[in-house]
C-alpha cells in the first residue's frame, strides 16, 4: 500500500462482478471505496442469435469481441449450443484478450490502441477484408459497424446480451454521492444511469464538485455531454491506468 489516495472517498459504479479488481486497486492506494453498481446485464437467448451462432461456420471467418461481457455471454452460448469455434478471434484490448484466454480461446488479433476505430483500421490494414461476426450487446456503440460498412466488409452483428439500469441502487446512490471526492465511470451507460438516478439538485452539485474519472475517450465524451466540469481519463483504457490518472491529477493540484 502506498497511501497515495489516503483520505479520498471514491465511488465505483461498475457492475458487481467486475468492480472488485478496481476497488482493490483503489484500496491498495489508501482510498475508501463505495460501490454502487448502476448496471446489470442479462443474456439474450432468442431464435435470431441462435440461428446466427449455429451458422457461424458458413458466415464468418473472424469473431470480434469488444467487451468482457460479450465474452462471458458468448461462452455461455457456446456451451449451451455445443458449438466448436473454428474462427479466428479479434479482441479490442488486453482485458478482453485475457478473459478470452481464460476461457481457452486463442487471440489472433489485438490492436495497439484499445479503441473500436483503431481495431477496425489496424485489422483491415493487416488482414484486409474478411467475413466478420461482431459479438455484441444491445447498446454496443455503432462505430465498428459503421467503419466496417464504410470499408465494404461483410459482417454480421450478433446481439447476445442487454444492459439494464439497476433501479434497486437508486436510493443508495443518492445517499452515497454526498460524501465522495471522485466517481469512476467505465461506460457511457453508467454515466446515463448516474444522471438519471440523482435528483436534479444533486446532479447539479456533483457535476460541478466531483472529479469524474472515465475509463476512456468514449465515456469521457458522455461525461462532457452531461456537463461534468472535471473529467480525466487515461491514454490506455484500463482500470489500472484510471487509478494512475487520478493519482497524477491529485499530484498536480
Account of the protein in words:
This protein has 253 residues and is α/β, with parallel strands linked by helices. The protein folds into two domains: 9-38 and 166-252, 3-Layer(aba) Sandwich (Rossmann fold); 42-164, Rossmann fold. The protein contains twelve helices and ten strands. It has a five-stranded parallel sheet with strand order 2-1-8-9-10. α7 links the parallel β6 (132-137) and β7. It is globular. The model has no long low-confidence stretch (mean pLDDT 94).
Number of extended strands: 10
Distance between the termini: 22 Å
Architecture of the largest domain, CATH level 2? Answer: 3-Layer(aba) Sandwich
**Strand/helix succession:** EHEEHHEHEHHEHEHEHHEHEH
Number of domains: 2
CATH topology of the largest domain: Rossmann fold
Widest sheet: strand ordering: 2-1-8-9-10
Helix % is 40-55%
Short structural description:
This protein is α/β, with parallel strands linked by helices. It is 47% helix and 19% strand. The model has no long low-confidence stretch (mean pLDDT 94).
Sequence-ordered SSE layout with sheet pairings:
Blueprint lengths: L8 E4 L3 H13 L3 E4 L3 E5 L3 H8 L1 H4 L2 E4 L2 H14 L6 E4 L2 H9 L13 H12 L4 E6 L5 H8 L4 E11 L4 H7 L5 E4 L2 H10 L2 H10 L1 E4 L2 H9 L4 E3 L6 H14 L1
Parallel strand pairs: 1-2, 1-8, 4-5, 4-6, 6-7, 8-9, 9-10
Antiparallel strand pairs: 3-7
Helix pairs in contact: 6-7, 9-11
Key phrases:
2 domains; 10 strands; 5-stranded mixed β-sheet; Rossmann fold; 253 residues; 47% helix; alpha/beta; single chain; 12 helices; 5-stranded parallel β-sheet
